[in-house]
Amino acid sequence: MTDNLSHAPAPAVTAASSGRAQNVKIRARGVNVFYGAKQALFDVDMDIPDRTVTAFIGPSGCGKSTFLRCMNRMNDTIVGARVEGAITMDGEDLYAKGLDPVLLRARVGMVFQKPNPFPKSIYENVAYGPRIHGLARTKAEMDHVVETALKKAGLWDEVADRLSHPGTGLSGGQQQRLVIARAIAVRPEVILMDEPCSALDPIATARIEELIDELRRDYCIVIVTHSMAQAARVSQKTAFFHMGRVVEVGDTETIFTNPRDTRTSDYITGRFG
Ligand SMILES: Nc1ncnc2c1ncn2[C@@H]1O[C@H](COP(=O)(O)OP(=O)(O)O)[C@@H](O)[C@H]1O
Ligand SMILES: [Mg+2]
């Protein structure tokens, strides 16, 4: 089209070389997780790219939620849970001694299966985190933070005239978007979602899927889903877990059309799980 484009040099680096290492947001190496004596994850290696939706799929109990929780140290809160190995975000060790897990959980937000708004107003649900983290100095600044987060979560138009109403009074799908707004309000880098649509009807699910697709422009997103169709619709990368191991990870299209491992093809064609 333009001279600029036609003379643009070919990309000098490939994904396989270290030149695009900055695109990896979270890197896991040799991750083992134990609950007491029981091992739940075995030697997990994974590179999770930034500004991409990565889906975790696999049969129930295979370790998807466990691995998700490793990324914001939620496993720290489970008595008897132990994490071995290395997990870094932009090269920073997430398990370093000096790292505050509470601050980490603002940077790596989490959304659960069941929407869990606080028993507070819609406004306060979103303002809560920014207030704790000192992200707004004045009421006007806080109003702006709340409005921006609700807009990003695709909820503003539905709640702008009732910000003082309880968050728990919203529909399930709206509550899930409120929880996403709450996560966004503290300026996360990564958003982890553990089966975020499992409790929602198809219309609310479609709305969340659209939202996830918009959010990937700004965030690294990881979603656990038991729906193959959802993984295919919303993700660009897919990791298949089986019995505590990552069997296969790659481009979603490849995983669904041309998987390497028979366990993957058996699962996606519905032979088990
Ligand atoms: N809090 C816990 N205490 C003990 N065992 C757990 C706990 N959470 C998960 N597990 C066990 O770890 C394994 C992986 O579970 P999980 O990560 O929840 O799998 P998934 O999310 O893929 O269904 C399962 O065997 C499960 O029973
Ligand atoms: Mg789970």
From TrEMBL:
GO terms for molecular function: ATP binding. The keyword ATP-binding applies. Pfam families: ABC_tran. CDD domains: ABC_PstB_phosphate_transporter. Keywords: ATP-binding, Nucleotide-binding, Phosphate transport, Transport. The keyword Transmembrane does not apply. Transmembrane segments: none annotated. Residues 26-268 form the ABC transporter domain. InterPro entries: AAA+_ATPase, ABC_transporter-like_ATP-bd, ABC_transporter-like_CS, P-loop_NTPase, PstB-like. NCBIfam families: 3a0107s01c2 (TIGR00972). This is Phosphate ABC transporter ATP-binding protein PstB. It comes from Peiella sedimenti.
